[in-house]
Design goal:
The structure is a homodimer of 175-residue chains. Chain A is an alpha+beta fold. Chain A has eight helices and six strands. The first copy, chain A, folds into two domains: 82 residues, Orthogonal Bundle (Arc Repressor Mutant, subunit A); 42 residues. Strand 6 of chain A pairs antiparallel with strand 3 of chain B, so a sheet runs across the interface.
Chain lengths: 175, 175
């Protein structure tokens, strides 16, 4: 991680990966989505060493994903609560859980994600066009925006050309 | 990571996190989505050490996310191509990119994710009810499935009760 090529300098996926590309960061967020707020609960539920937990919580607070707030019942104690940006990650977590149950096989029905009021399963998370049609991967393109670094803009254009070639060759089934 | 509490043993998010909760795993997948297939291209684009890249590619191939296939032009060389399960991760990657652009601030318009045919931006990735309504986080529940470990089932039930309490107290705005 010493050299950072220009092509990933301004990439939004690279930036989020710096933050979430860590086993514990994702597991802590999962816990937070399940309602865990206290340091000791995170520790017990995750089986994580206190010093590691402490560091990871601080990073998530610094990044604005968790808010560290005094506990209403005892203001000497703090709680870690999902901030608006943390809560906005729920489609990512749910898409990950659905993917895992679909593709990682075993324990397939350990978890069901449902609409609270009806108990009905939610839909699989998909990418949709502006009019709501579900898009498969071949129908989606990443294009440089106005603020793209020149090298990254070139990468996106190359990727677009490559995937056009692949599509016109009628490349295999979509995932 | 020595102790693994029963509560996370069968959790689908925990399983996917073992696999993807790694800075490089996500960055390699991002590269693959951008059309990178050759070892040397991954190396240059990511600025990653060869031994680390080699290990991470092997893990992704072993996990079935990438296929290692002979290059059509030179069968002594191998390419790393997204498998169906790797391709099926695209809603996760796109949701991450959208979240990053929305919440991590700077370089907000570096990347646009569009429908290839129209050039129109795709919708933000959301979680939808069976009938297609967009659900916010408070309207979603995780409930134990038939294969849930008993401890995990209890966790989901506790989380459900806690979030019900929070909703009935009219907890703040949704993320």
């Amino acid at each position: 991680m010493s050299r950072k090529p220009a092509s990933i300098e301004h990439c939004p996926i690279a930036r989020v990966t710096e933050l979430l590309g860590d086993h514990w960061a994702l597991m802590i967020l999962r816990e937070a989505f399940l309602g865990t707020v206290h340091f000791g609960q995170f520790e017990t539920h995750l089986g994580i060493a206190r010093n590691i937990l402490s560091g990871r919580l601080k990073r998530l607070v610094d990044a604005g994903l968790l808010d560290r707030v005094p506990c209403p019942d005892d203001r000497r104690v703090h709680e870690y609560r999902l901030s608006p940006s943390g809560r906005a990650l729920h489609p990512v977590l749910i898409a990950l859980a659905q993917w895992s149950q679909r593709w990682l096989g075993d324990a397939c029905e350990a978890l069901q994600i449902v609409e609270r009021s009806s108990g009905e399963a939610v839909r699989p998370v998909v990418v949709q066009a502006a009019d709501g049609r579900t898009l498969d991967l071949r129908e989606i393109a990443m294009v440089p925006g106005p603020d793209a670094a020149p090298e990254m803009a070139e990468r996106y254009r190359m990727a677009m050309r490559a995937s056009k070639r692949a599509s016109s060759k009628g490349a295999g089934g979509d995932g």
